[in-house]
Amino acid sequence: VLGGGPGSQATAGDLALRGFEVHFWGRDPWKLARLFQFKQIRMVGYPEGVGKLADASDDLSRILKDARLIIVVLPGCSHRAVAEQCAPFIQDGQIGLVCGNSGVGSVVFSRVFQEKGVKKNFLCAEYSGGVVGGRFLESGEVNRAADFSVGITKYGLHVGVFPARRT
């Protein structure tokens, strides 16, 4: 999970509590020092508990290495910069899910990878919003009781894929 804010921490904590191996990247080591040190996210609300992370760091190459699914939970205005940072570390067969408020995150990531000469088989999907919401209590601690933005319906999470022929 790439991010740093409450949405990315809530996503990482939720997935970790569900038993997934989660690696977390954030670009602000000062703000995320506690999370990087203890490699866990305490979830208040539902689900309640402490999600233990496999890794948490500001070292993007380490976090992306061998990742199967890369979930980017950042505002649309930062998608280009993060895509540029990710480009050198993308591997064949990885899947990206770009979440944010822009609605064109997959297009941005795909174009940046093309500009940077990334020739890997990378599938990029997007969801215009946050998959899991919450409010910060502090770094590594998220209140899910405030969550009202979950985009999952009884029919699943509606995502788009770019290019659409790869849906």
What does this 3D model show about the protein?
The structure is a single chain. The protein has 167 residues and is an alpha/beta fold. Helices cover 25% and strands 28% of the residues. Helix 4 (79-86) links the parallel strand 6 (69-73) and strand 7 (95-99). The longest helix is centred in the N-terminal third of the chain and has 12 residues, at 6-17.
Summarize the structure.
The chain is of the alpha/beta class.
Enumerate the spans where pLDDT stays under 50 for 5 or more consecutive residues.
none
* SSE class: alpha/beta
Strand order of the largest sheet: 4-3-10-9
| Portion in beta strands | 25-35%
Largest sheet: 4 strands, mixed
Rg from C-alpha positions?
15 Å
Share of helix, binned: 25-40%
User: H/E series, N to C?
Assistant: EHEHEEEHEHEHEEEEEE
Features of the shown structure:
four-stranded mixed β-sheet; globular; about 170 residues; alpha/beta
SSE topology:
Blueprint: E1 2-3, H1 6-17, E2 23-26, H2 33-38, E3 40-44, E4 49-52, E5 55-57, H3 60-64, E6 69-73, H4 79-86, E7 95-99, H5 105-115, E8 123-127, E9 135-138, E10 141-143, E11 152-153, E12 156-157, E13 160-162
Parallel strand pairs: 1-2, 2-5, 3-10, 6-7, 7-8
Antiparallel strand pairs: 3-4, 8-13, 9-10, 11-12
Helix pairs in contact: 4-5
